[in-house]
Write a structure and sequence with these properties.
single chain; 275 residues; alpha+beta; Alpha-Beta Plaits; four-stranded mixed beta sheet; three-stranded mixed beta sheet; 8 helices; 21% helix; globular
């Protein structure tokens, strides 16, 4: 399932009266969307039926800008990332800090309840005992399992390959979390304060890396990539995988790269080098 544009600027993000996520004030769930789904509404038919008062997928804020953005999103492009593990320092967490600051989530150190969009992991070869550290986030699969199992269509893939979560119709069932082979999604257990307008979040919803879609739609790089290039090892390369002339495509063509769990046939958008 693919959709174009992704924004909640007019609806105010999660926690509003129109949102199907759990209310930040009461902690109670709004079930209207779920009831409509179970009754066999447009969701069951594979479509999305919304009132004209809500603009859920207009990234930019105004209807005019939404129309312009919609024409810019196309399957001709596929945004992706290449991470060179050799350039990723063992103790460096610049990409994690940049993502946290840009998107308004915090890691408190509790693995059971923390919301984490990107994390550093350590991979060890059992034969050679060689260890590699690298960042791991949503890999933005071409065939995302999270989208396949979502009962409401809240998990979806844009035409340009970015996998997102629509917080308005996420019912917090967490099927997508179980389906993701990379454990890249997390659940908002606590009420969210001081959230960013471009990255709406709310208690009771699932969330994960968006590749900083709000920046991509303005022609900018994801926050993690920019931060890594400026003050760290320059291990992250972002670009259009469908453009044979792009730097990321040329690098993948020239050097050996790895798709994590390539055996699953998901054709991920985030790939690795030197692991």
């Amino acid at each position: 399932m693919t959709r174009n544009n992704f924004d909640f600027s007019e609806a105010g993000g999660c926690g509003t009266s129109s949102c199907s996520c759990k209310s930040q004030d009461t902690g109670k769930a709004e079930d209207v969307t779920k009831r409509d789904f179970l009754k066999g509404s447009a969701y069951a038919a594979g479509g999305i039926s919304l009132t004209s008062a809500l603009t859920l997928f207009t990234f930019g804020g105004s209807p005019a800008q939404a129309k312009e953005d919609e024409t810019a999103i196309s399957s001709k492009q596929r945004w992706g990332m290449l991470i060179d593990a050799d350039k990723c320092g063992d103790d460096c967490d610049t990409c994690v800090s940049a993502c946290s600051e840009e998107n308004g989530w915090k890691n408190t150190g509790n693995p059971l309840t923390d919301t984490i969009w990107i994390r550093k992991i350590k991979v060890k070869n059992p034969e050679t005992e060689h260890e590699t550290t690298m960042p791991l986030m949503c890999l933005h699969c071409e065939k995302p399992p999270c989208v396949d199992v979502c009962p409401t269509g809240a998990s979806f893939r844009r035409d340009d390959g970015i996998v997102l979560v629509d917080r308005h119709i996420c019912i917090g069932c967490r099927y997508c979390m179980m389906a993701c082979p990379y454990k890249a999604r997390s659940f908002a257990h606590e009420a969210v304060e001081d959230q960013k307008e471009h990255a709406p979040r709310g208690i009771g919803c699932v969330e994960s890396c968006t590749l900083c879609v709000h920046k991509i739609d303005k022609g900018e790089q994801p926050a993690c990539v920019s931060a890594c290039s400026k003050s760290a090892g320059g291990a992250m390369l972002f670009g259009d995988l469908n453009d044979p002339e792009s730097e990321i495509s040329q690098t993948i063509k020239k050097y050996a790269t790895t798709q994590m769990r390539a055996d699953l046939g998901l054709n991920v958008g985030v790939r690795y080098q030197n692991i």
